[in-house]
């Protein structure tokens, strides 16, 4: 495994937003992390990237194995060498990653200059090639533009080029297309998947959309209330979802021919971090909850990183 997150707990002050989170990512694999906002997906990304201190968070249990090294215990200095070079983060809003007063291409150049030691000319050539692979038209001209001169979709392509510039082994993409138009979203996911597959990279793709998981991912970890509730290969999970929350997420995918407005959300609200429900955190919204569900936390039956489900009644309500 390239990345193996095991029994990860994260706290921010007195709150424990992530609890016993686990999954594994093999080289060349695309893993979806899916759930509604507030499930802990972005925090999981930040924990992997070593960015929790920026928001006052810390890892207080578990491990984040990356190529045999436990990142949960890695000094910041070593982390800095890893970020950008061996692992890169793509965030939802391209403007959080782009400096508004530096030319777009120069920002991509800087990554390969810093992490690969390329000179100015080689870095520029590499950036233009990458921009071309990201289907940015006239990449040599766009190289010299400022971020505000690009559309949202083009800016996000530039951010993806930046993430790829140092040839990292792992890309973490946190809702990389959520801020964009629906038509642009699908194109960019498609491009990202092609580039990742061509290079044999591993991708952790965070999304709230099961449709994106179906389009792009090999495996999926479904998160709810700061925990992983179901994990497995995408095909198997779509063929036979076992957790009621996974079933509900699949039911939210818009289908062709659906009347506009027919899109159904999941009834009820996502629990807040400071007041997670007792027992199974999904019980207030679960259509098949039983008294046991309020009392006892269901543990994922596949172990810390294996396939499985965390539900007392994965085969449906008791007769
Ligand atoms: Fe529903 Fe109970 Fe399963 Fe939780 S453990 S998802 S409440 S059936
Ligand atoms: Mg998020």
Automatic annotation (TrEMBL):
Keywords: ATP-binding, Cell membrane, Membrane, Nucleotide-binding, Transport. GO terms for cellular component: plasma membrane. It is a peripheral membrane protein. Transmembrane segments: none annotated. CDD domains: ABC_NikE_OppD_transporters (cd03257). InterPro entries: AAA+_ATPase, ABC_Ni/Peptide_Import, ABC_transporter-like_ATP-bd, ABC_transporter-like_CS, Oligopep_ABC_C, P-loop_NTPase. Pfam families: ABC_tran, oligo_HPY. Residues 3-250 form the ABC transporter domain. GO terms for molecular function: ATP binding; ATP hydrolysis activity. GO terms for biological process: peptide transport; transmembrane transport. PROSITE patterns: ABC_TRANSPORTER_1 (PS00211), ABC_TRANSPORTER_2 (PS50893). It is found in: Cell inner membrane. Coiled coil: none annotated. It comes from the Bacteria. Belongs to the ABC transporter superfamily. This is Peptide ABC transporter ATP-binding protein. It comes from Hypericibacter terrae.
């Amino acid at each position: 495994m390239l990345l193996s997150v095991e029994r990860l707990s994260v706290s921010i002050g007195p709150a424990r937003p992530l609890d016993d989170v686990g999954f594994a990512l093999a080289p060349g694999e695309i893993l979806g992390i899916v759930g509604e906002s507030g499930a802990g997906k972005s925090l999981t990304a930040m924990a992997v990237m070593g960015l929790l201190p920026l928001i006052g968070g810390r890892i207080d249990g578990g491990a984040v194995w990356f190529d045999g090294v436990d990142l949960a215990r890695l000094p910041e200095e070593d982390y800095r060498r890893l970020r950008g070079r061996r692992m890169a983060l793509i965030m939802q809003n391209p403007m959080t990653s782009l400096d508004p007063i530096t030319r777009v291409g120069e920002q991509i150049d800087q990554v390969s200059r810093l992490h690969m030691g390329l000179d100015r000319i080689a870095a520029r050539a590499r950036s233009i090639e990458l921009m071309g692979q990201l289907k940015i038209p006239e990449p040599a001209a766009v190289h010299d533009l400022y971020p505000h001169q690009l559309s949202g979709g083009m800016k996000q392509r530039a951010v993806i080029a930046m993430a790829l510039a140092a040839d990292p082994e792992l890309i973490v993409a946190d809702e990389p297309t959520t801020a964009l138009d629906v038509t642009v979203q699908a194109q960019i996911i498609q491009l990202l998947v092609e580039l990742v597959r061509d290079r044999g990279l591993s991708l952790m793709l965070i999304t709230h959309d099961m449709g994106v998981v179906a389009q792009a991912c090999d495996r999926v970890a479904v998160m709810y209330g700061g925990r992983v509730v179901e994990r497995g290969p995408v095909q198997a999970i779509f063929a036979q979802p076992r957790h009621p929350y996974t079933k509900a997420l699949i039911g939210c995918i818009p289908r062709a021919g659906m009347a506009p407005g027919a899109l159904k959300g999941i009834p009820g609200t996502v629990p807040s971090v400071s007041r997670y429900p007792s027992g199974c955190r999904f019980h207030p919204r679960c259509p098949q909850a039983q008294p046991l569900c309020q009392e006892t936390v269901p543990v994922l039956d596949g172990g810390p990183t294996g396939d499985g489900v965390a539900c007392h009644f994965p085969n449906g309500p008791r007769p």
